[in-house]
Amino acid sequence: MITYDPKTRTFFLHGRSFSCALWVHPAGYLVGLHFGGSAGEDDLGYLDPSPRELSFSPIPPDVENYFSLDVAGSEYGSFGQGDFRTPSVLIAREDGMRASRFLYRSHEIYDGAPDLGALPAARGGKTLSIVLGDALSAAEIRLNYILYEDLDVLVRNAEIVNRGNSPMFLLRAYSFCLDLAAGEYDVLRLHGRHNMERTPERTPLGHGSVKIGSPRGASSHQMNPFLALLERETGEDRGVCIGFELLYSGSWTLEAEQSQIGSVRVSGGIGDLNFCWELKAGEKFVTPEVAICYSEEGLGGMSRGFADFLRGHVLPEKEVFKPRPVLINNWEATYFDFDREKLCAIADAAAPLGIDTFVLDDGWFGARNDDHTSLGDWSVNEKKLAGGLAPVIEHCKKRGLKFGLWFEPEMISEDSALYRAHPDWAVGRADAPRCKSRHQYVLDMTRQEVTDYLFARMSDILGGYEISYVKWDMNRHISEFYSAALPAERQGEFAHRYILGVYGLIRRLQAAFPSVFFEGCSGGGGRFDGGMLAFFPQFWTSDDTDAYERAKIQWGTSYGYPLSAMSCHVSSCPNHQTGRTVPFASRGAIASLGATGYELDLGRLSAEERTQVKEQIANYRAIEPLILRGDLYRISDPYRENRFCVAVVSKDKTRAYVVGMCVHAVAGDFDRRIRLKGLCAQKHYRVEESGLTLRGDTLMNVGLLLPRLPDFGSWVWHLQETS
Ligand code: DGJ
């Protein structure tokens, strides 16, 4: 519910178990009074920060009594008027002045969410839109708050309009600012690197700032656009935490800052390093959305809140709850070394096992036999694939397999026909040496002719063959940050324009080929974010397919994202990334905790392993409704314990699927109990594997005995309510 009381000039936003109260100060300042647990619509005037006088905190010229922005809760931090915490926006006017004083102008409340144009955006909900005017410039700020009454998620963004007659420059344009009352918090972030994405790290906030982000032109493996504030006692199942997640895939920043009075400001959005956006008279700049999730049930509650929100309001509606393709991908089976016969042999082996889609990965186009060449030349390499793609697709079709294809649209190899024709289409200057990464350059996605070219080439392929699935990869980060097509004073717009170009191309292709299923990828999970997930219902979680490492990566990813968004494959052992050998059953168990698939030479499997594949796929299909819609409960943390264990419980609590993995076998560890979570205490459940029938509270408080397992051995339990 969203309300406004004109008498007290207070807005209230009530989610399922949180409330947010905003107050319009008599001079017009929009003051955040509360964000936290549910509250009544009382007159909160007693929270007016005015009487709290602090030395060294400037007072703006338009207030009668003492009032300083330095201590007031702000909804969009301003610069130069006494608030010394991090500002949300920095506007350079023609005269060079950058100070801003934002005052309330108007508001509206409407059903649904705002249209963000090119940016990915949350659907549904109810919106409060508050317009602030800058008393010191012609900027007008519109703050959008999208509320979902059945969730504990509030989505926010800001729009900046130049209402004047001359241009202004945005040196920073964050999406939001939230000031929380004084408290002691920890910060949780998800850091990593290639093959090690989304590793949780919890540290005390303390005074000053914790600023995280990616300046890489992509949301990145190195830091996920996610941050959570946790009260000190908050753990997995209990306590207050507030998660923040940007629906954005480009360079970004999130910042938590504890002020002199102990209050905590969280703000962020587009990364401001090298950012400068020219806003001409009448133009509007729209910032990406942030989803803020409030939980009183610890990190687990936050994760389930984000999962419900993303599935219900962000992931593509037409696919999010549908069974996913179970695929065989040839990458780890062949890398670049394949021909028609090899691919057909993989398809032959896949078809009888229950796999439904064959995905041809990198290496099918141009003259690409290794990663030095041909990106951008999106035509079939007929030398390698005699007769082109058609015979392979036909072969798959005859065996009942659909066909999927890999693209890396945003890249260009120096050794490519495209580069020889258009060296200026690569990011950077054609007349100066540029950085390479994986031997490739990045295409300038800010240019219409570049995205038109990609649309035409990809349309030829997608329209010319029966292709049901696309894997959209991106294998390097951006350097130079320079477009030959942008004037000097607009180069600071490059990174944001780049990602808008990417979103635009995906949108165009998806509109042209509505029946094609798109999966995202960026050298594994390098762009695993709410922006990409608005287009791709699933994303390749990591190039690290080692089941133990994957259990950790999927654990970290689950803090902010639903299981169904994680693409997870069974691969061969010794594992290509770590050299570790993990039992086949464990690889299947870990891969069943997401959109499952296979990435190995099926022809090399033993008869017993082939039977296991069949069983794994049958199991996946049986539990898929839980993966798509269920609630995740994290039970044993593989970063801290000698095991990994999670449970996925159906919304009606009639079914549960538990997956666990032991790290190292330990002698005599026979009294270890796994206490389940998320069940209905009074219901009785039958555990399929043991035949035991126990009450929910017994399963949750007494627990089940941990089975005896070898190194990296796993177990699964299927629980079904009995009457
Ligand atoms: C990186 C991806 O994450 C892999 O799965 C594979 O598609 C390679 N790129 C191909 O170059």
Structural description of this entry:
The chain has eleven helices and 38 strands. The chain has 723 residues and is an alpha+beta fold. The protein has three domains: 2-313, alpha-galactosidase from lactobacil brevis (Beta-galactosidase, Chain A, domain 5); 327-450 and 467-504 and 516-572 and 599-627, TIM Barrel; 635-722, Sandwich (Immunoglobulin-like), CATH 2.60.40.1180. The strands form seven sheets. Strands 6, 7, 8, 9, 11, 12, 14, 15, 19 and 20 form a ten-stranded antiparallel β-sheet that branches. α6 runs parallel beside α7 and α8 (547-557) packs parallel to α9 (584-591). The chain is globular. 54% of the residues are buried. The model has no long low-confidence stretch (mean pLDDT 97). The structure holds (2R,3S,4R,5S)-2-(hydroxymethyl)piperidine-3,4,5-triol.
Q: According to CATH, what is the topology of the largest domain? A: Beta-galactosidase, Chain A, domain 5
CATH architecture of the largest domain: Distorted Sandwich
Bound molecules: (2R,3S,4R,5S)-2-(hydroxymethyl)piperidine-3,4,5-triol
CATH homologous group name of the largest domain: alpha-galactosidase from lactobacil brevis
Shape: globular
Summarize the structure.
With 723 residues, the protein is α+β, with helices and mostly antiparallel strands. The model has no long low-confidence stretch (mean pLDDT 97).
Keywords for this entry:
Beta-galactosidase, Chain A, domain 5; 10-stranded antiparallel sheet; Immunoglobulin-like; 723 residues; alpha+beta; binds (2R,3S,4R,5S)-2-(hydroxymethyl)piperidine-3,4,5-triol; 8-stranded parallel beta barrel; 11 helices; globular
